[in-house]
Each structure stands twice: as structure tokens, then as C-alpha cells.
Amino acid sequence: MTGFVLAYGEDRIPYQVSYDDARKSRVAIHVNPDGSVAVDAPLGFSDESIKQAVQKRARWVVGHVREAKARYAQVRPREYVSGEQVLYLGRRYMLKVIPVEGKPASAKLRGNRLEIETVSGMEDDIKGRLRAWYSVRARDYLSRRIDALAKTLPWVDTPPPFRLLEMSRQWGSCSPSGEIIINRQLVKAPRECIDYVLIHELAHLKHHDHGPAFWNLIDTHAGDWQKAKRHLDGLVEVLLN
């Protein structure tokens, strides 16, 4: 991975370049939720060619970096107290922290509330119990959706193995061995956004790059995926908080 700096007016924006032997002719520029910039370049591209490609899109990069940093700055850190809102499958629930003296029960949804029992009342304890609840829900829901979607995709013979992972810059990935890796936080997103990410990763079982054939596959099988992607992009800071 190589680092460069984009200069545009008074802005100086560092970016990291990764080389991809599956990419043939163009660089791909990604502005991450925290405003950092990553660039994927074909193997063998010269430093000068990469710099010129990024410079041509300097205005776009600077604009998106500013927007990302502005959104990120408005997200308040969690305190893990009663009254805070938590997200699950795109719906908002109110967190209810319940002090108990005996062994705490597992977190559970009751109507519009997510109830978490705690003995210590410490933030780390409540945070851990919330994360455990999300992990169980994510494993169950995503497993069912992968199985259901796999049945509708002609290139998928059997549902691939998948695992959950904490990721700060992407929603999912597909390993060379065919394992689907999904960001644990994705279970907070609306259902249509989740399906878009899952179909995106399942499409990598057939096409490992993001070339025209890959996007044709997405166009055919992911419906109005552009709308779902825009919705998901707009929720990034909230979902990852």
C-alpha cells in the first residue's frame, strides 16, 4: 500500500493506494465514512498515472471528503443509558437499561424498546450486552437472507459460508475461497440495504472484480440497488456509531 497527497486549492488530502491485479484499465476512488480516501489501481500503473487519475477527480474527492467529515462530526458518541435510540433492521428502538441484583437475562425487544438488564450498571457491561444481542440477531437474520437470496441467483449452487466481522470501512467482502464476510453492524440497516450488500458480495462468487460484467449482474438481480446504496451511504455514520 502506497501513500500520496491530493492538492486542490488550499486542501491537502492524503490517500492510500492499493494495487489490484484484477483491475485492468482504471483506478477506483473511495471516500470512507470518516473522510479518509482509498484508491484501487491496476497492478503496474505508475505513480504518475495514479496521481493524474486522482487529480482529474479532485473536485469530486474534496466535496465528498468535506461531506463525510461534516456528517461524522455530527454523530454523538453513545452513552449506553436509558432513552438512547438503537437501530435494528432500519427501525429505531428505545434503549431501556434495567438494574437487577440476580443474573441478568439476555437483552430482548419488547414493543418499541430494547431492554438490557445489568448488575453493575457500567457502560462497558451494557455495551457488551448490546453487542452480544446484535451478534445473535445478525447471525440469525443474515444467515436466513443469504439462504433465501442464494436460491434466486442462478450462479449460486449452495449458500456460501459466511462470518461476521467488525469493519470500519466496508459492509462486506468475498474471500478468494468464496467465504462471505459481513460487517456485524449491517443488521442495523433497512432490509433493502442489507439485501443489496448481500447480493453484491454473492455476485463476487461469479466476478471477483468490479468490472462491467459484475455491474450487469447487479443490475439484473438487485433491483433498484442504486437507491438502496444511496440510502445506506447516508446512514453510515449512524450505523457505525
**Spatial ordering of strands, largest sheet:** 1-2-4-3
CATH-level-4 superfamily name of the largest domain: Metalloproteases ("zincins"), catalytic domain
Strand/helix succession: EEEEHHEEEEHEEEHHH
In helices, the fraction of residues equals 25-40%
CATH architectural arrangement of the largest domain: 2-Layer Sandwich
Cα(first) to Cα(last) distance is 27 Å
Number of helices: 6
Largest beta-sheet details: 4 strands, mixed
- Low-pLDDT residue intervals, each spanning 5 or more residues: none
What is the number of beta strands? 11
Number of domains: 2
- The fraction of residues assigned to DSSP E strands is 15-25%
The CATH topology annotation of the largest domain reads as: Zincin-like
CATH class of the largest domain: Alpha Beta
Integer average pLDDT:
90
Shape: globular
Radius of gyration (CA) equals 20 Å
Secondary structural class: alpha/beta
